[in-house]
Amino acid sequence: MAADTGRYRSAVSKSKDPSGLLISVIRTLSSSDDKQDRETEKGRLEEAFEKCDRDLDEQIVQHYAELTTAIRTYQSITERITSSRNKIKGVKENLLSCKMLLHCKRDELRKLWIEGIEHKHVLNLLDEIESIKQVPQRLEACMASKHYLHATDMLVSAVESLEGPLLQVEGLGDLRLELHSKKLNIHVVLIDELHRHLYIKSTSRLGTKNKDKNQGPTGDTSPLPQLDVSSLSTPRKLMDSSQFSTPGTTSMRELQAHHEAREDPDVHPEENTQEFMGVLIKGLAKLKKIPEAVKAIMERLEPELKQILKRSTTQIADHAYQRGENLATESQPRLLLELLELLFDKFNAVAAAHSVVLAHLQQIVVSPNGAQEGIKLYEQADVSAKIQTVLQVARGSSLPRRRNAR
Questions:
Q1: Domain boundaries, the chain
Q2: Which end of the chain is more exposed for a tag (fewer CB within 10 A), N or C?
Q3: pLDDT at position 236 over 60
């Protein structure tokens, strides 16, 4: 019995597990032989319990403040957790309620969304209509200032809008007809401007060249020795390609091949003739009038060259009259030479201008739109052939007068 009691005490002192202690007590009580042993064991248990109770009270007294703080903290945490759970529960309920309400209002919300898109589209159309109503005035201003590329862009865009999204707007019928008529006729203005720069602007600085050249330092206007016109080169020789290639013509073509014509609203458009002709070609391309432009160039080429011949002849005659020379006398060969030199200079400038135009036209042809339209261009050889024809006319009309003078 004493041995069993010792084993129990050692088990109680070593074991830290309450379940193990309980099992040890049950085992000890079960192995007791009589009631006295059980009473003895009970007394020991009561004594141990009282000791534990006293130790617990002492620990509580010693750590009362910490224990109170821990209990309060625990209570606060518990309250917060409970409050958070309640809030989360409320949020879940609200979300479920919103989901249900949104599901019920889905069709109405979709209808309002579609109406919003429609109103936005209507506002955009109203803004576009207000902008298009101002196109005639702005177009007139651009045409007056010769900003043709901007005018063409604005006109083409306005007509596309009037014949597209705004086609059903009845109040724009008159404006649609007006702008459509302008679009059909504006290319005529561009072609006329192109010809003015090809034949007039390009030769405008050559007016006094021969006059200054033929006057000596003392202003002597005595006639030069007579020139045998029959000794002049043939027209074919005069039209050698090198005769009409100004310095930089090839580089200009290469430059135009890599340069896109642009229009600066702050600069006078005619300040640079080459760029201005590029702007005109680009405007004609936007109007899809390149075939008409090429046709007009070919049809008007010889008449324009003849006009240059006529103006040059008048110019030489006026200069001779100012110098007091008689056109029917021995001065005729020298005047013919002056005329041919002036024609060479002017035709050279015209050929160079055509090379610039052809470079811009080539850009249009190689573009996808140009390839689809099947645009066919004229060639520099066509210009040379027409110049040769006009030179033959000039030479032929002068030779009879030379024979009559003899």
A1: 2-62, 65-104, 210-405
A2: C
A3: no
